[in-house]
Each structure stands twice: as structure tokens, then as C-alpha cells.
Amino acid sequence: MAKSYGCGDCKFRSELQPGCNNNTCYIWGENPIKKMYHDGSEVAEDVLTVGSSPGVLVTSPRFIFTCRIDPYMLEKLAKGVTGVAGFGQTTPITVPNQLGSDPRFSRKFGMCLSSSTTSRGVIFIGPNPYYVYNPKKIDISNSKDLAYTKLLVNKRGFLQTDEYYFQMSSIRVAGQDVPLNKTLLIINKKRHGTDGTSISTDIPYTILHTTFYDSVKTAFINALPKNVTIVEPPPMSPFATCFSSENIKNTNVGPDVPPIDIVFYKPSVFWRISGANSLIQVSKDVMCLAFVRQDQTWLPSIVIGGYQLEENLLVFDLPGRKIGFSSSLKLKQTSCSQYDNTIMDKVPF
Predict the structure, then answer these.
(1) Which residue in 67, 81, 86, 87 has a CA-CA distance of 20 to 30 Å to 203?
(2) Which of 13-17, 239-243, 244-248, 296-300 has the lowest mean pLDDT?
(3) How many domains does the chain contain in total?
(4) Which stretches make up the Peptidase A1 domain (predicted)?
């Protein structure tokens, strides 16, 4: 089930222990932040407990995972983190695929990243509704509040990737389409799965193909009020476009700047990126466009990063082959950290 490439004995430790056993099978382990891989991660099995108090804890008695004892495999992960949970769409041993066999769950989950450094976000495992408080309990997974588009599976080189790609057709700034080479929005199978649009919580800010970035930057600047001034040179890497915040007002969804829309399969179906997710305050008086300009010739043309996803709900419907995006939860006067953790079959993980 884990698609192990081979088995063997532990020969580099004097005593057998977790991560070092005899007659054990191996697969590749990964540190996604460092982009580090190791071919000696043991396939193991144990009881997985899912949930957080006071929610009802749910257990999976024979959950398959990998174990590696090398400290360097944890480098650059957040403080206190001791492992990585895989939520990919195709590998059989990812969390949604293993738990999907339990009748209380399904191969569907919602991800909501908190913008706070002190409060947790949440992953809802299983079918919706997904509840948060504002202070009343509300369902943030209501279909009329989500924009859905097709989930795509990509093959990078000779390997099928577990990364999430999705269908999009254009980018709008302040309601106007920006000029794009739209062939770069389609996965190029002839060039081993390059181009297209993917999602990655491994990277902090959305990466745009250089030509895409230049078009978005120009449209964004042109749509700003004339009294907003550009700061040159940009004061902080990796940002290439920065502004004085003196004349930028604040709203309940962040800085009052032109919205950026990721348009899916038709103009009326789009995901809106508001000021809280498009600009970042880098100093007392300076804000920067929170996107990275990068040559993506042999990579996805767009990679949606964590900052743009904060306080937005994403619903991954694997059986339905679709993904849903909410706009900022700040519009509903709530956040990802205000989730309801008292429902057994929608257990925060």
C-alpha cells in the first residue's frame, strides 16, 4: 500500500528503535521546507489519534506512516514540530486517503490557515459543514460562499506528483483582466508537466511567472489612488514592489487596495484576494505587494503560497475532483482560529 521500493535491516544503530528496525520496508521521506528527501524512511504502523480537547477524539488503529530518526530531517520546520502530515491526493497512505475508508470520514477535507502567530488554524477532516464562531456558530463551507474549480493531477517528469493543481483562466485586478500568455496556465505535458497553477503551503508567498508578475504589478499600480507613492528600491527581499502606507486606508479585510481575482473556468467564478492577503507590512511606513517574481520556465507558472491562503477556507473534494475557495473570513467577522472543535465527525487535526 505504501509502494515501498525495498526492505532491509537497520545496520547503523547498535540498538533497534523506532526508525531503525530489522526486516523493515522503506520509502522516501521528505522535509518539504528544505526540499530534502531521504530514501531510508521506514514504513511503520501505529494507532493515530485525531482531534483536540474538548472534541471527541477519534482513533485509526492501523495507520501507516514513515519514521526517520535523523535530526537534520527536521531542520527549518517550525518550533515544536516533529513531523509532517501528508494530505496529497494520489498516494494511498496520505491522511485523507487512509481516513477516507472510515465511515465517519470521507476523502474530503477543509484547510483554514490562521494569520495569527499565536492561534492555530485547522484542517477539517471529512464532509462539511465546517463551523467557526463570529461569535455565533456559522458554516463557512456553505457552497454558495465558495468558488469551485477542477482539481488536476499532474505528472512531473516520469512521476505523478501529489501536489494540487487547479484550473484557472485569467487574473483580474480591480475588475479588469490583465494581459497573460494563457498557454502558460495550462499544464504542458510535452514539457514534462511544467506550467499550470498549483498550491503549496511550503512557500510563504505566491510565486508568479515573471511575465505574469509584471502584468499584475502594472495593473495594480494603475488602479491605486494617485496619492499612493512607490518606494524605491524595495526595502525587503523577496518583494519587488513596495508602497508608502501613509495614504492607504485600512478596512475589515486589510489595506484598501484593488482586489486581485483568480478567475476559474468562467468570469463569474473566481477567488478574490483582498488587501490582507495581497499586501504585507514590512515596516512602519511601507507595504509591499506580497507576491514573488520568479522565472518559472520549468515549474508551475503560478504557485499559490501560504500568505495568500491565510484566513481563507479551501475545501478539497477528492472524490468530486474539485477544490473550493472562500474569500477572506474577515468579511464574516471571523477567522480560521475560531473553529468549532466539539463535533465528532468533523474533527480538527
Answers:
(1) 67
(2) 13-17
(3) 2
(4) 1-326
